[in-house]
Amino acid sequence: MRWLNVITPYLSQIINIIIQPFSDDPDPDTTPVDERVLTHNQEHQLASNRQDGSDPWGLEDEIVPEVDEQDNNESLLLVRVPLPKKRKLCFYIFYSIFVILYVVFFLLIAYAYPLKPVCTMEDLKLPGYNKTASANMSEEMKKSVYVNFTCNNRNRLISASYDQLSIVIYYYLPEDLESYYLLASIMAPGFYLNKLKQKIVKVHMPAPGLPSLLKLGKPLTEVGFRVNLEFGVRFGCRAPCELWTPGFEPWVDEILHHIPELQPLLHNSYSSRILCNRLATKDNLDKRGMELQSLDCQLCYSRAETLDHIVAACSTTRMVSAYLSRCVKWWPVNETFAQSIWTAIYISNGERDTREKDVKKVIGAAFFWTIYGGFATARCSMV
């Protein structure tokens, strides 16, 4: 609060200077006194000394003019002592800097505040509703719903990471608006959106309620649909989730054999997932809303109960692929070009050593963030 004590006298003086021309009766107590005018007590002392004939101050030859008391009071009221120029200049400079910083801070907060994400539904298709077009379709396609969403990140400074999308579709009849019937529901995987970017999300949903809708025998124009979309958004994502391509299976025996430094990282990650109950088992995937028709995972297309899938797939594997796509120039994003890290490393024998070093750094960083996030979740659950 020192700066407030320093600025307060300056502000009071400036306010007095501004208000004084508009005031009729200025306060004599606040009027500055001219030091060159003798006070009444000093005049009285000098007069008494002259009457006695004594001159203790040596003022015999000095002529002291007589000052009328009324004129003295008028002169005191009209005296104004201006502020020093340097003090004025410093005050205006500091005040201007403070105002500018305040305005810049306010505009920056208003400009950089994460705006709410926008997600709109563009299209909803029921292939099995058209009998003529669905003659050559499989039974799975006939009992499915296809939904297209457009997600837009309106923030100019911060990227966004969408968590899993919870999509639930109901249908209702116009004559009974209070009754809704479940058509389909699914938990779609999340994705990454850079600043001021938009993405079209296409979701294929199995529709267990489609047969009951077909039994009504009404055209789609007489049926209403309601779509509930729930999702969470995290701003400032570290890894580009849009580059997570399913199908990569980097955790093979060859990599662990040629890169032994990954063994302690793999062990630590497995231990943290056991403590946090975050292993990608079939039961945990079912709890997350991922319905597995078989033991093949829908995200990484591998066996859901294998050790490879439990430790890394559906989590760290996709993060490793994202880090490689972002940080390493030689990493192929195309799934058909390289099905694993092993084939990508040995696609050129001349760069084998450098590529192994790059892969070790990337995998180490991915494991670090996986372990860190796992223990943070464990602490929150314990509290």
UniProtKB/TrEMBL annotation:
Residues 273-319 form the Reverse transcriptase zinc-binding domain. One of its GO terms (cellular component) is plasma membrane. Its main location: membrane. InterPro entries: NDR1-like, RVT-Znf. It is found in: Membrane. The chain crosses the membrane at residues 89-113. Keywords: Membrane, Transmembrane, Transmembrane helix. The keyword Transcription does not apply. GO terms for biological process: defense response to other organism. The keyword NADP does not apply. Pfam families: zf-RVT. This is Reverse transcriptase zinc-binding domain-containing protein.
